[in-house]
Amino acid sequence: LRSSLRPYGTSIFTAMSQQAARQQAVNLAQGAPDFGPPAALLAAADEAVRRGGHQYSMSIGVPALRQAIAADLLRRYRRQVDPETEVTVTAGASEAIWCAALGLLEPGDEAIVLEPCYEQYPPAVTAAGATVRYVPCDFPEFRLDPERLVEAFNPRTRLVFLNTPWNPAGRVLREPELTLIGELAEKYDAYLVADETYEHLTFDGVAHLPVAEVAACRDRTVTISSVSKTFSATGWRVGWAVAPPALTAALRAVKQFVTFAPATPLQLATAVMVTDAPASGYYELLRAQYAQRRAVLRDYLQRTPLTLADNEGTFFLLGRCADDDVEYCTELIHSRGVAAIPASRFYADPQRGRGLVRFAFCKRLDTLRLAGDRLTAGG
Ligand code: GLN
Questions:
Q1: What is the CATH T-level fold of the domain 3-37+282-376, as seen in this structure?
Q2: Which atom of ligand 1 is nearest the CA belonging to 228?
Q3: Which prosthetic group or cofactor does it need (predicted)?
Q4: Nearest residue CA, atom 8 of ligand 1?
Q5: How far is the CA of 228 from the centre of ligand 1 (A)?
Q6: Which pLDDT belongs to residue 379?
Q7: Mean of the pLDDT values across residues 146-158?
Q8: Which whole number is the average pLDDT over 145-169?
Q9: Can you tell me which atom of ligand 1 is nearest the CA of 234?
Q10: Whose CA is nearest to atom 4 of ligand 1?
Q11: Residues 6+ apart with CB under 8 A from 176
Q12: Which residues of 165-184 are buried (b: 16+ CB within 10 A; e: fewer)?
């Protein structure tokens, strides 16, 4: 293994899912639904497969999907983007994250990452030959400390990774925070990579604010999303990146040599779904179903000794135990038959996130109840 990537070890999602399978535990670790995508998406996929489209698409993605994404942004935010020069289809949000890092970072650059962070950002930065500079945010509020942020920026800063709604913190970033980040980025001529994979999963009236909708961020942001969470199809590996033409050109330059393009029929089916979902009430239904799943799991977790953080978005609940979270999660699998993620793994210094445990609620209600009964059995 390339020595610079060695510190990242095995993905915690792979490690915990393997342990869960071995012990036949209920898997609330990996953020993958145990229910299928909406019927309309499956019907569109059937149709696309029947009609052809079995060869490579354009590397930047099928026109129908790029146009559907542009139309969706226009409808939701009155934001105008050009599907030819500003929208790129990728193999999941993951490929977009890597292409942004490899396309925009030079060796010797720095990228700022807010902690706790999704485990993919640091290795992507490292692979580009750049260095990660962490801005730690602490349980349970995960407030962004302006001083820490200001300190992190310097003339070598080239990228800032943002994730809103934020996995695993469960927070939604607000306008003043994003304005500060945007202004600092402008001062140092840095770009923002906004991973907005959970854009449709916000609760209790909290609205998702796209980073690119904030004036200070607009011209320097790569916005990333995907079908994975919105359409419960994490295995499809269809995502996209929307960015001003110069940034788009940089990530496309990498992308053509990575996957070239994701599966054509799945891109075509996604285009149909993105176009039809708003009028069918799909997004409201998705949010209502997730609010119910969250309520069920939270009710159980509140009966355990864990202290819970608030959740405004994503499909994760984060709690803190009094012990070491890695030991806690190992014990949970073996004695309770429930798998969760030891969330100190989302910090460069695990001491900072000691005791944090992440539970995914992207599961059927009966799965959540089974896990909950196991978590609370015996008082
Ligand atoms: N994004 C999901 C999570 O945070 C799954 C990631 C993965 O399995 N690679 O759980």
A1: Aspartate Aminotransferase, domain 1 (3.90.1150)
A2: 1
A3: pyridoxal 5'-phosphate
A4: 13
A5: 10
A6: 60
A7: 98
A8: 98
A9: 5
A10: 31
A11: none
A12: bbbbbbbbbeeebbebbbeb
Q: What distances in angstroms separate CA 173 from CA 148, 195, 196, one per listed residue?
A: 16, 12, 11
Choose among 358, 350, 341, 343: nearest CA to 134: 350
C-alpha 155 – ligand 1 centre gap (Å): 32
Taking CA atoms, 45 is separated from 69, 195, 270, in Å, by 17, 26, 8
User: What CA–CA distance (Å, rounded) separates 167 from 156?
Assistant: 26
Q: Kindly report, residue by residue over 230-255, the tens digit of the pLDDT.
A: 999 999 999 999 999 999 999 999 99
What is the C-alpha radius of gyration for the chain, rounded to an integer number of angstroms? 20
The pLDDT tens digits of the residues spanning 34-85 come to: 999 999 999 999 999 999 899 999 999 999 999 999 999 999 999 999 999 9
Average pLDDT over residues 325-336: 96
Q: Is the pLDDT of residue 5 over 90?
A: no
Whether CATH 3.40.50.2000 fits 39-280 = no
Of 362, 339, 343, 359, the closest CA to residue 16 belongs to 339
CA of 259 to the centre of ligand 1 (A): 20
Ligand 1, atom 5, lies closest to the CA of 31
Quote the pLDDT of residue 8: 87
Q: Give pLDDT tens digits for 291-323.
A: 999 999 999 999 999 999 999 999 999 999 999
Amino acid letter at 183? E
Cα(72)–Cα(70) distance, integer angstroms: 5
CB atoms near residue 194 (< 10 Å): 28
Span 274-291, pLDDT tens digits: 999 999 999 999 999 999
Complex ipTM over 0.90: yes
Pocket, ligand 1, Cβ cutoff 6 A: 11, 13, 30-31, 167
3-37+282-376 and 39-280: same fold?
no
- pLDDT at site 52: 87
What sign does the CA torsion over 29, 132, 226, 11 have? negative
All structural domains of the chain with their residue ranges: 3-37+282-376, 39-280
**91: nearest Cα among 250, 243, 233:** 233
User: What whole-number distance in Å separates Cα of residue 295 and Cα of residue 239?
Assistant: 29
